[in-house]
Specification:
- It contains 15 helices and 27 strands.
- It is an alpha/beta fold.
- The chain has two domains: 8-178, 3-Layer(aba) Sandwich (Glutaconate Coenzyme A-transferase); 193-438, Acetyl-CoA hydrolase/transferase C-terminal domain (Glutaconate Coenzyme A-transferase, 3-Layer(aba) Sandwich), CATH 3.40.1080.20.
- A seven-stranded parallel sheet has the order 4-3-2-1-5-7-10. A six-stranded mixed sheet has the order 12-11-17-22-26-27, with helices on both faces. Strands 8-16-14 form a three-stranded parallel sheet, with no helix packed on it.
- Helix 7 (193-205) crosses helix 8 (218-226) and helix 8 runs parallel beside helix 9.
- The chain is globular, with a radius of gyration of 22 Å.
- The chain starts with 13 loop residues before the first helix and ends with a helix.
- Bound molecules: coenzyme A.
């Protein structure tokens, strides 16, 4: 139906949008699939006239020239709240730096440092009253839009209309750039034998009526596969994925589940952002069963704790024998970010009957300088020097590999070392035992 609200005066081109960014500005981009691809892909073109522009992103999906080209040093600084392929590649160029943060507080942390000048995001075309949906993310977008001097959104006819904190009025938007393009899709990672074993251990420990948070990748997909026959589950998660859609279609999700409900959300599947296949985008479009809410609420552990039997399933890069979890760096090299790992694991540990899981393969095949791969144990005596602790060992409970599931809560360092060695790859157990004895863990 035609929009009765006249917004023609707000329509500008990508070039006009870029002309509103100036030297020393602080620009914030929406997250992942909600990022304004058209504007970000052209950002480097203003380099000749700007210096010292900070651009904050979280989970950027584009590999823009504005931060991957060494010539952009001094013009732009990418303040990355969560690293991805492009930001990893930009290491050492002087164009990019990680901002350590929890997803629940990322926006508020940014505001403590500097007020944003420009917010860049995406939205659906308006309804007949002039309302739009921010579509794939409400993680920090609303807070940043409210704080920014200027709000510029790319209006993309391909974006699904989602409900929740995503719905705003065009009065709150300064400028719109019409730009229709297909949304980025996250291909389904097929589960292999190891994923299925891990999925089965975790699936056995998840009770009917649990509230679920799942990340992405082969392991979470395998866990979702193990939950298809469960009953009365609810979804309270950072990221809404295809795995959750499978659970919904299998009838595992309760339609009137009692969840965290200060905003009449009972029975809704709650997330801060969605990323997946076109099937997922079609499912969430105009679907009142899904609520995309702000991350400062969804990921807040003190909100999550009100869910009964909250389960968090997160993956990691390395766990040491005392239970310290590094999920965001390989040694000193930033790989991803804290994201919502600590938020969701701490929320689950506080929930009545809650279970936080850290799931990992027992080994990784690490690329060597000569291009070959070396097998290493992901359970290590101590963390690799430089490794970032994403989850403090006092917040770690279940750890699961393809060799079993162990519980660390309440366990001493001696017990933790024994438990973790018991689920390490058999080829590394003797070596881990020896190291643990040398370190006086055992
Ligand atoms: N030592 C050295 N390298 C290692 C390693 C280790 N212990 N473990 C993994 N790697 C390497 C792998 O070899 C792989 O390298 P490659 O790209 O050259 O093949 C790379 O690290 C990625 O490993 P993989 O197991 O494929 O990681 P992933 O893509 O499944 O991501 C996390 C796993 C932990 C990085 C990711 O889940 C994350 O960022 N988590 C933190 C945020 C979070 O949990 N958010 C919450 C929920 S939505």
């Amino acid at each position: 139906m035609t929009c009765t609200y006249d917004y023609s005066h707000k329509l500008i081109s990508i070039e006009e949008a870029l002309s509103k960014i100036h030297s020393d500005d602080f620009v914030i981009s929406a997250l992942a699939g909600a990022e304004p691809k058209g504007i970000l892909e052209q950002l480097h073109t203003i380099a000749p006239r700007v210096r010292n522009v900070s651009v904050a992103t979280c989970l950027p999906l584009h590999k823009g020239q504005w931060y991957t080209d060494p010539a952009m040093k001094g013009h732009f600084m990418h303040r990355a709240w969560f690293y991805t392929v492009g930001t990893r590649a930009a290491a050492g160029l002087g164009t990019c730096s990680c901002v350590p943060c929890h997803l629940s507080t990322a926006g508020h942390d940014a505001l403590k440092r500097k007020k944003p000048n420009v917010f860049l995001g995406t939205c659906t075309p308006p309804d007949r009253f002039g309302f739009i949906s921010l579509s794939l993310s409400a993680t920090y977008e609303r807070e940043m839009m409210e704080a920014a001097d200027l709000v510029i959104l790319e209006m993309n006819g391909e974006t699904p209309w989602t409900y929740g904190d995503t719905v705003i009025h065009l009065d709150d938007v300064d400028f719109l750039v019409k730009n229709d393009y297909a949304l980025p899709q996250l291909p389904i990672v097929d589960s292999d034998d190891r994923d299925r074993k891990i999925g089965a251990y975790i699936g056995d420990l998840i009770e009917d009526g649990s509230s679920i948070q799942l990340g992405i990748g082969g392991i979470p997909n395998a866990v979702a596969g193990e939950l298809l026959h469960k009953k009365g589950l609810s979804i309270h998660t950072e990221m809404f994925t295809d795995g959750m859609l499978d659970l919904y279609e299998a009838g595992a999700i309760a339609k009137s589940a009692p969840g965290t409900d200060p905003r009449m959300l009972a029975g809704k599947m709650v997330a801060t952002f969605a990323l997946g296949t076109q099937r997922l985008y079609d499912f969430i479009h105009n679907n009142p069963a899904v609520a995309i809410m702000r991350g400062s609420w969804v990921n807040n552990p003190y909100v999550i704790r009100h869910n009964k039997k909250q389960v968090s399933i997160n993956t990691t890069l390395e766990v040491d024998l005392t239970g310290q979890v590094c999920s965001e760096s390989i040694g000193h090299k930033q790989f991803s970010g804290t994201g919502g790992q600590a938020d969701t694991a701490i929320g689950a540990q506080m929930s009545e009957g809650g279970k936080p899981f850290i799931a990992l393969y027992s080994t990784a095949q690490v690329k060597q300088p000569d291009g070959t791969r070396k097998t290493v144990s992901k359970i290590t005596p101590t963390l690799t020097p430089g490794a970032v602790v994403t989850l403090h060992r006092s917040n770690v409970d279940y750890v699961v590999t393809e060799y079993g599931a162990v519980r660390l809560k309440g366990a001493s360092v001696e017990e933790r070392a024994s438990l973790l060695i018991s689920i390490a790859h058999p080829d590394f157990r003797a070596q881990l035992q020896e190291e643990a004895e040398k370190l006086n863990f055992l």
